[in-house]
Design goal:
globular; alpha+beta; 4 strands; 8 helices
Length: 151
């Protein structure tokens, strides 16, 4: 089963969209394995956005992600990385598919509500950055047979 990392960003938390975002991910059939609310330190923000270091928008990203609390999640399911990214929508909300989180609630790239890992490899790196191993729960849901099972 594939796992991915999701951040419900400060703008979504401030706009009281956290529950709606979690609901959409669960409604899709994805399973929560870890969840925590935190005020991100500058050090963690810099590590998370390290790939963008030196780019003109890097400092703005760090300032933004540390400006208010956010919610970090580990999500599990078949094809979880792709499924979460589809549910989130394109980075630019104006280019997102109708029904996606970013399309329905966002207008600008600077306030696009949600971060979703872009690959299985990056998901593993991000999960290990944001969560301790003991914070991630492996569990079985009774409904999984109706969501995941192939005939």
């Amino acid at each position: 089963m594939e796992r991915t990392m999701v951040l419900i960003k400060p703008d979504a938390v401030q706009r009281s969209l956290s529950g709606e975002i979690i609901h959409r991910l669960e409604q899709r059939g994805l399973k929560l394995c870890a969840l925590k609310m935190l005020w991100v330190s500058k050090d963690l923000a810099q590590k998370h956005y390290e790939v963008h270091k030196g780019k003109p928008f890097y400092e703005g990203l760090v300032d933004y992600i540390t400006s208010s609390p956010l919610i970090a999640l580990v999500i599990e399911g078949p094809g979880a990385v792709k499924a979460v990214r589809q549910t989130a929508g394109s980075t630019n909300p104006l280019e997102s598919a109708p029904g996606s989180i970013r399309h329905d609630f966002g207008l600008t790239m600077g306030r696009n509500l949600i971060h979703a890992s872009d690959s299985v490899e990056n998901a593993e790196i991000e999960i290990n950055l944001w969560f301790k191993r003991e914070e991630i729960i492996t569990w079985d849901r009774d409904v999984d047979q109706w969501v995941f099972k192939n005939n």
